[in-house]
Design a protein that fits this description.
Layout: H1 4-9, H2 11-27, H3 34-50, H4 55-67, H5 79-93, H6 98-109, H7 121-132, H8 153-160, E1 161-169, E2 174-181, H9 188-208, E3 212-217, E4 220-221
Parallel strand pairs: 2-3
Antiparallel strand pairs: 1-2, 3-4
């Protein structure tokens, strides 16, 4: 079986991920580099592991998490769909079984809130893991927008996010996204302005996994 370590070591994957992040940086969007991909990969696998999924599915979720944004190498628009096709081609070239590659393709193609739906366990874990990565380290410091006036709302929210974690509370049947926001930098309402639709998708993803999605910001439960 192809493992996440094989994916990370592949030269084609490295090249495509480099170009994806280069385009995102040129557009001035928040970081979508190996850092983000690695976090999403880990969290997606952890979610399935903690709900008792088979090791095979856990590994597929980790791979989907790592590759989920490679479509940004083509264009930001419809990056989920282009990334899904790219991932399928890469994975089958590497020798992955067609059904496994197709499962990852489906997950990547459905991870974006604009068109995505939680249609599998891998997809659901990927959706939650991706939307959970809100952190100040994702804001680019080498742009001309780094004054308070020039920061867009995505920058402000991420810059105010001191910490975000995803936990599965098996006893209560919950998947909990816990975020610490510095409200002196950004009001909590700004978070909801840009993340509300994403949180709705996370709720549907948790439902697919048979769990309840819970959002906690600064120790206050919102969902």
């Amino acid at each position: 079986m192809i493992k996440i370590a094989d994916i990370k070591a592949d030269e084609e994957v490295k090249a495509i991920m480099f170009m994806a992040e280069s385009q995102i940086e040129a557009l001035g969007f928040t970081e979508h580099s190996v850092r983000h991909s690695s976090i999403v990969s880990k969290w997606a696998g952890d979610i399935l592991e903690k709900i008792g999924a088979e090791e095979h599915r856990i590994e597929l979720a980790r791979i989907a998490g790592y590759l989920h944004d490679i479509g940004n190498s083509v264009n930001r628009e419809d990056h989920a769909q282009s990334g899904a096709i790219l991932a399928y081609k890469i994975l089958t070239r590497m020798g992955m079984e067609y059904r496994d590659a197709a499962a990852i393709m489906m997950a990547i193609g459905n991870h974006d809130e604009s068109q995505g739906l939680p249609v599998s366990d891998i997809t659901s874990a990927l959706i939650i893991a991706d939307k959970a990565d809100v952190h100040k380290s994702r804001v680019r410091v080498n742009t001309t927008r780094m004054s308070t006036e020039n920061l867009n709302i995505h920058d402000r929210v991420n810059l105010a996010a001191e910490k975000s974690t995803v936990e599965v509370d098996a006893e209560r049947g919950e998947i909990v996204l816990n975020i610490i926001i510095d409200t002196e930098k950004c009001p909590v309402m700004d978070y909801f302005e840009i993340y509300f639709k994403r949180m709705q998708l996370c709720r549907r993803a948790a439902d697919f996994l048979g769990k309840k999605f819970v959002l906690v910001i600064n120790d206050v439960r919102f969902l």
